[in-house]
């Protein structure tokens, strides 16, 4: 167990300023599964531009910089599982 966990401090992914919408959570789960923007758009019956907007919102709300960090958040919080 990490010292920060023992001290009761929140992990980086628990410090979300704004909760994600259900659609944003869904997009994050699909990113964590390795889908491209085009594949996510097809899966959700959206346009690629809409997916990009959702991803930008997810990044802003989570305070992350890229898809890898979105995927790390999704796996770490149990949004996706093996």
How would you summarize the topology of this molecule?
Elements: H1 3-6, H2 22-32, H3 37-44, H4 48-62, H5 67-76
Helix pairs in contact: 2-4, 2-5, 3-4
InterPro entries: Sig_transdc_resp-reg_C-effctor, Tscrpt_reg_LuxR_C, WH-like_DNA-bd_sf
Protein name: Helix-turn-helix transcriptional regulator
Keywords: DNA-binding, Transcription, Transcription regulation
What report would you give on this structure?
This protein has five helices and no strands. The protein has a single domain (23-82), classed as Orthogonal Bundle (Arc Repressor Mutant, subunit A), CATH 1.10.10.10. The protein has helices at 3-6, 22-32, 37-44, 48-62, 67-76. Helix content is 59%, strand content 0%. The protein has 82 residues and is an all-alpha fold.
Question: Which percent bin holds the helix content?
Answer: 55-70%
Order of helices and strands: HHHHH
CATH class: Mainly Alpha
Q: Can you tell me the overall shape? A: globular
Class of secondary structure makeup: mainly alpha
Radius of gyration: 13 Å
Number of domains: 1
- Through-space gap between termini: 22 Å
Rounded average pLDDT: 87
For this structure, the quaternary state is single chain
Under the CATH scheme, which architecture would be assigned? Orthogonal Bundle
**What's the number of extended β-strand segments?**
0
Strand content: under 5%
Q: How large is the count of helical segments?
A: 5
CATH superfamily: Winged helix-like DNA-binding domain superfamily/Winged helix DNA-binding domain
The largest β sheet comes out as: none
Fold-level CATH name: Arc Repressor Mutant, subunit A
User: Which ranges are low-confidence, i.e. pLDDT below 50, for 5 or more consecutive residues?
Assistant: none
């Amino acid at each position: 167990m990490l010292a920060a966990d023992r001290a009761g401090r929140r992990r980086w992914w628990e410090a979300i300023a704004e909760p994600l919408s259900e659609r944003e959570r869904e997009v994050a789960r699909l990113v964590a599964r390795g889908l491209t923007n085009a594949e996510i758009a097809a899966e959700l019956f959206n346009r690629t531009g809409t997916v990009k907007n959702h991803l930008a919102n997810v990044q802003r709300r989570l305070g992350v910089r890229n898809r890898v960090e979105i995927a790390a958040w999704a796996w770490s919080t149990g949004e996706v599982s093996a």
